[in-house]
Amino acid sequence: MKKCLLYRDFLACLVLSLAFVSCGTPRQIDNQSTDPPNVIIILSDDQGWGDLSINGNTNLSTPNIDMLSANGASFERFYVCAVCSPTRAEVLTGRYHPRGGVYSTSAGGERLDLDETTIADLFKSAGYATAAFGKWHNGMQYPYHPNGRGFDEFYGFCSGHWGNYFSPVLEHNGELVRGEGFVIDDFTEKAMAFIEKNQDQPFLVYLPYNTPHSPMQVPQQWWAKFENKALEKLHREPEKENIRHTKAALAMCENIDWNVGRVVDKIMELGLEENTIIVYFADNGPNGWRWNDGMKGRKGSTDEGGVRSPLFIQWTGVIEAGKNISQIAGAIDLLPSLVDLTGIEGTTNKPLDGISLKPLLMERDHEWEDRLIFNHWRNATSVRSQQYRLGRNNHLFDMVHDPGQKTDISQQYPEILQQLMDAEKAWEKEVLIELPAKDNRPFPIGHPRYSFTQLPARDGISSGNIQRSNRYPNCSFFTNWIGTEDKVTWDVEVLADGEFEVVLYYTCSEEDVGSVIELEFGANKLTGQITEAHDPPLTGMENDRDQRIESYVKDFKPLNLGTVYLNKGTGKLSVKALEIPGSQAMDLRLLMLTRTDRLKID
């Protein structure tokens, strides 16, 4: 191992202390257009490294994703985070996720701090049309919302997972809309329409899919292949594997592959193939015990199997087709790499942790300094060098000769162990210190530049008898609202004085109609009454290929409570029932606040 191993040394040797992105002009190569290249970033959700046929999994076929590798570059050792929102934060910023305030996957902990510069901010400033289609998972309320982070266009959902994948309620630039068909197909369709609309100008398209994340829903045409299929490849501990869950995940991966093919076909149809960079990777390890080439760990783990992801980068005529890159890299590297490859001008206001991979992509036999990549989740930090991984309890593994992490070699190599332990301590001292002991960020309401603010049950706190529909907050709702002392509160900050239309999304049985509901913030109150029954059944189970652990869902009805004036400031916004004539007031999914006096600010 080389001497430059401590994290504080890496701050210098990897130029992490720079507060800007170095943006040189891309190398001119035959067939390369002089126009700024387009960028398409495709991110799958809970797809492991082994969930692709190109990586040796004979259980499924992913020819379109495999072709990205054949036509571009493949990174053999690419690392993301153990779970969803941290990886997305690192992609957006080029910085380790704790630096940006991301420490959880729900209830506000998934939000990316507002003083972070995103990749969309940079490309938008450079004149690119920017759009995101799919699962955002880095904040819902503007300016945490994608439209506040550099994306002109957003279609999808901002939560950590969604409870229904077939024509669900989604949002388009903050406004609730009804999806059209299976969500992955829908997101792809919207992305292709955006590409076609903006084909005459450079564009950045971020396509963060939400499969194969649970619930395990996939159209019948994809499920049919796997329902009765005998799997050839199993997890290294087959007794742990849920075969039905695995089959559903593989069917979802084949659906992703079909949609990737549609995107590539659209690029070729429009004649943009030689001027478009396409990036494909996953956000963490597999969401189940299934074949992953014998690696240790799955989603949620900082072991190799929990954080290793495929990464393919295609730029026809520029990046050598079929190139395999063995040097380690990570999600933190994508922002500086894409800025460097496209040659855009742009600056960030904070130092980057990632480095540009352009030399590895564009040059042959490039000398590359050994480096360290850090993974942190739930009080566990793992350190990866080119050859070794420091895991939990200071176990050391030789990842070249023992890729399955079966033999702890810490006693045989005490010097290497100490170097990586020192690097881990230095990294934690610098990076984790940026996370406050308590998250005091309120949920913003009513930014004067934006009309809509959602306050979902996920972000609320219940008191009294009120219960969540499920212990996993994402896509949950509140129920068992049986007392007038019961309430739901949100810690909020009204960003500017103004009038807001308030719509409450509820369900209520016929015998419980008549509850009087009060919304309160400071001295301002708004009262309305439930006058119509709406009692649909729970759904989701009919489309699940394997039983979910998250909440089932149902169709919630909008109730316009009226208009209320809210004063700028922080405090608790609460909803309670003043009268409950039946057995309970309602089930509550979310509040939608629409600023009726939105300011026109350029």
Description:
This protein is 20% helix and 25% strand. The chain is α+β, with helices and mostly antiparallel strands. The chain has two domains: 406 residues, Alkaline Phosphatase, subunit A (3-Layer(aba) Sandwich); 153 residues, Galactose-binding domain-like (Jelly Rolls, Sandwich), CATH 2.60.120.260. It has a ten-stranded mixed beta sheet, with helices on both faces. Strands 18, 20, 23, 25, 26 and 28 form a six-stranded mixed beta sheet that branches. The protein has a four-stranded antiparallel beta sheet with strand order 14-15-16-17, with helices on one face. Helix 6 packs across helix 7. The longest helix is centred in the middle third of the chain and has 27 residues.
What is shown here, in short?
This protein has 602 residues and is α+β, with helices and mostly antiparallel strands. The protein has 11 helices and 29 strands.
Q: Compute the separation of the termini in Å.
A: 53 Å
Task: Bin the helical content.
Answer: 10-25%
**Measured on Cα atoms, how large is the radius of gyration?**
24 Å
The coarse overall form would be globular
* CATH structural class of the largest domain: Alpha Beta
CATH-scheme architecture of the largest domain: 3-Layer(aba) Sandwich
- Spatially, the strands of the biggest sheet line up as 7-6-5-4-8-1-9-11-2-12
Find the count of extended strands (DSSP E, 2+ residues): 29
Q: Classify the fold: give the CATH topology of the largest domain.
A: Alkaline Phosphatase, subunit A
The total of helices stands at 11
Into how many domains do the coordinates divide?
2
| Helix and strand composition category | alpha+beta
CATH superfamily of the largest domain: Alkaline Phosphatase, subunit A
How confident overall, as mean pLDDT? Answer: 93
Spans of 5+ residues with little confidence (pLDDT < 50)? 1-33
Assess the beta-strand content as a share of residues.
25-35%
Main sheet summary? 10 strands, mixed
